Amino acid sequence: MNFTKFKKSLIAGVMGFSLIGGFVASPDYTTPATTTAKTLNTVTLVSPTDGDTASFKYKGETIKVRFLLVDTPETKHPSKGVQPWGKEASNYTKKKLKNAKKIQLDFDQAGYKGDKYGRKLAYVYVDGKDLNLQLVRKGYARVAYIYAPNTKNKAKYLNAQAKAKKEKLRIWSKKGYVTSSGFNTTKKETTTKKPSKTKTYKNCTELRKDYPNGVKKGHKAYQAKMDRDKDGWACER
């Protein structure tokens, strides 16, 4: 083999190894080639809500968007309170969205129809990078709510989740915390101090002085009249 042929063979071999072995930066977080300009919708940020929800301005209308196929721990749930890694996930999403030069949404097949809460469902791209995927890969979110026909990123997200789990990143650092139905945490603490055993409360204002987060059904201070939404918690915030 002459020098010219050897050189060409060597270059081809290095390129092949780069694609397989990973010398080239991983394209996991970038906008996939199959996601064309036709499927991406440019929006402007109105306000981030938490790790997997935010409001955007789209075609002159403010829409609330739930990020497709991902679930981050709660930060504002009335009964679950603030779950481990919830604030961190929320802060990560807020920082990404607020610092973005360009935000785009991909509603997949039917995400614009929305869910039962009136939220649109979308993959969120920040400066060309898949924010949903970043949340999963960095251990801020689990892959969840996989419902046809909005499933085109399922395999990619599950692969990222497997890596985060193997590396025990954030939500995966706590054994048994992530479950198939959410995050395994007990309900918020109901006691911050010990009030008199015989003390009764006329209203939620009085009760919250002793129990800032309210009380659950079965607690001595619980009264059905203070549980207006009948969810088993009285005077929850």
List keywords for this structure.
alpha+beta; 237 residues; two-stranded antiparallel ribbon; OB fold (Dihydrolipoamide Acetyltransferase, E2P); five-stranded mixed beta barrel; single chain; 5 helices
Strand and helix map with partners:
Layout: H1 3-21, E1 41-50, E2 53-58, E3 61-67, E4 70-71, H2 86-99, E5 103-106, E6 120-126, E7 129-130, H3 131-137, E8 142-143, H4 154-166, E9 178-179, E10 182-183, H5 204-210, E11 215-216, E12 233-234
Parallel strand pairs: 3-6
Antiparallel strand pairs: 1-2, 1-5, 2-3, 4-8, 5-6, 6-7, 9-10, 11-12
Helix pairs in contact: 3-4
* Major sheet attributes: 5 strands, mixed, barrel
Distance between the termini: 78 Å
Domain count, please report it. Answer: 2
Mean pLDDT, nearest integer? 84
Neighbour order of strands in the largest sheet: 1-2-3-6-5
CATH architecture of the largest domain: Beta Barrel
Residues in β-strands, percent: 15-25%
Which structural class matches the secondary elements? alpha+beta
CATH fold-level name of the largest domain = OB fold (Dihydrolipoamide Acetyltransferase, E2P)
Q: What is the CATH class name of the largest domain? A: Mainly Beta
Number of strands: 12
Q: Could you name the ranges where pLDDT drops below 50 across 5 or more consecutive residues?
A: 10-27, 187-193
Count of helix runs: 5
Helix content: 25-40%
- Order of SSEs: HEEEEHEEEHEHEEHEE
